[in-house]
Design brief:
Layout: E1 2-7, E2 15-16, E3 19-20, H1 21-31, E4 35-38, H2 40-43, H3 46-51, H4 54-70, E5 73-77, H5 83-94, E6 99-103, H6 110-114, E7 120-124, H7 130-144, H8 155-168, H9 172-186, H10 188-193
Helix pairs in contact: 1-7
C-alpha cells in the first residue's frame, strides 16, 4: 500500500524528542509496513522553495499530482497550516483519496473541521501514540479505498447528478456510493453471503 505524506515546510522543523515530528510519522508508517512514496517534507526547506523559478514550481506541481494519483492513502501533518498544504489536501480530497490529517497540541485547522467529508480523519497524536494512531487510521482508510468503476448514463441522469452535487455540496460519486450503501443495508440476502 502506497502512502503520500506531506506537511507544511514551516512545520518540518518541529521537534518531538530527538527527531522532527515528520521523521516520527514516516518512521511509524514504514514500521507498520507501508511504502511512503514521498518524503520531500522531511528534507525540503521553505527558503529553497521560495528561491525556485517558475519551471521548478511547475515540475513540482506535476509530481504532486502524480503522487496523489499513485497513493492509496494520503497523510498530512497539519499542525502548522500553510496555503500549499491546504491546496494539496484539497486535491487529495477531490481525488477521493482517504486522507489522514494529523496534528499536535490541539492545533487542528478550523477549515478542516468544517469540511464534512467521511474521507478525512482528523487525529491528534504525540510522541507516545503515533504508531497506534496511524495503525488505526490506516486500517480505517484502507476500508475507504475505492475500486474505480465506470459506467454509462444518460444525459438526464448526468444533469440530475450535477444538480444533486450542487444542492447537497457533495461529489456525484459520494452521492451514488451512499445510495448503493443504503440499498446494501436493506438487502438481507447480500449480508448472508458476506
Amino acid at each position: 500500500m502506497k502512502i503520500h505524506f506531506f506537511g507544511s515546510l514551516i512545520g518540518n522543523q518541529i521537534k518531538i524528542g530527538d527527531k522532527t515530528n515528520y521523521e516520527r510519522i514516516v518512521e511509524a508508517i514504514e514500521f507498520l509496513g507501508y511504502e511512503v512514496i514521498t518524503k520531500h517534507a522531511l528534507t525540503k526547506q521553505l527558503k529553497e522553495v521560495l528561491e525556485e523559478d517558475y519551471e521548478q514550481h511547475e515540475k513540482y506541481y506535476q509530481k504532486m499530482i502524480k503522487w496523489i494519483r499513485e497513493a492509496d492513502i494520503v497523510i498530512a501533518e497539519v499542525t502548522k497550516p500553510e496555503i500549499g498544504t491546504g491546496y494539496e489536501l484539497a486535491l487529495a480530497v477531490n481525488s477521493e483519496k482517504p486522507v489522514i490529517a494529523l496534528y499536535t497540541d490541539g492545533q487542528n485547522s478550523p477549515i478542516l473541521l468544517g469540511h464534512n467529508s467521511d474521507r478525512i480523519q482528523h487525529l491528534e497524536y504525540d510522541i507516545n501514540n503515533i504508531k497506534q494512531v496511524l495503525r488505526l487510521a490506516i486500517n480505517d482508510a484502507k476500508n475507504q479505498s475505492d475500486v474505480r468503476f465506470n459506467f454509462f448514463v444518460s444525459p438526464k441522469i448526468v444533469s440530475y447528478l450535477d444538480w444533486v452535487a450542487k444542492k447537497r455540496k457533495m461529489p456525484r460519486a459520494v452521492y451514488l456510493r451512499r445510495l448503493i450503501e443504503k440499498d446494501m443495508e436493506k438487502n438481507k440476502e447480500f449480508e448472508k453471503e458476506d
